[in-house]
Amino acid sequence: MMASSPVPQFLNPDDAPALMRALRFCVRLRGHRFLWLRHRRRPQAIIEASSQVEFYDDLLGCEPCQAGIITLPQPAIPADPGEAVNTIREATAAILQYDKFPVVLGGEHSISLGVYQALAGKYPALGVIQFDAHADLRKEYQGSPHSHACVMARIREHTTATLQLAFAVFRKKRPITSIRKIVP
Questions:
Q1: Domain count, the chain
Q2: 14-65: per-residue pLDDT in tens?
């Protein structure tokens, strides 16, 4: 499961913890024309900046970098958005297979569908809480049903256990029906 080539680690711990509890990987999407240039470096930038923060966390009472967070190599993400969702789902499912907690960093939130699908496969009662300025309920956007503007529409095809918060923008014709209870 672990690659032989070194991967920059989140929080840059001095040595990798012996007990892995969480596995993290980055995703850079190439198929989304609109947001790719703006977001493609964000996951790696988070990793690079993480070595510059204070390691000790008062609330946790420990150094999170010693808690067993291991950074995996980025999976090869296809340019096709639908295939990208499948790849992200498979990468997340592989982590879950080892009973580890997946932490997925991406440059934009259309990656959430693949992560959700893998988690829902293991935890069928899973609900989703979305904090976003937009509802992301479009049937398709820029010709793709897997666009960032469609992610919650795709997740709602699998569950009604969703809670969407912090909206700033709705299309005028769309009624505000997006707030639902977590437990159906």
A1: 1
A2: 544 444 555 555 565 544 443 334 455 667 777 777 777 778 888 878 887 7
Q: At 149, list the tokens.
A: 């503007």
Integer Cα distance of 80 and 23 in angstroms: 25
CA distances from 34 to 38, 40, 103 (A): 8, 11, 25
| CATH at 131 | 3.40.800.10
In a domain, 174, yes or no: no
Instruction: For residue 148, give its domain range.
Output: 22-165
pTM over 0.90: no
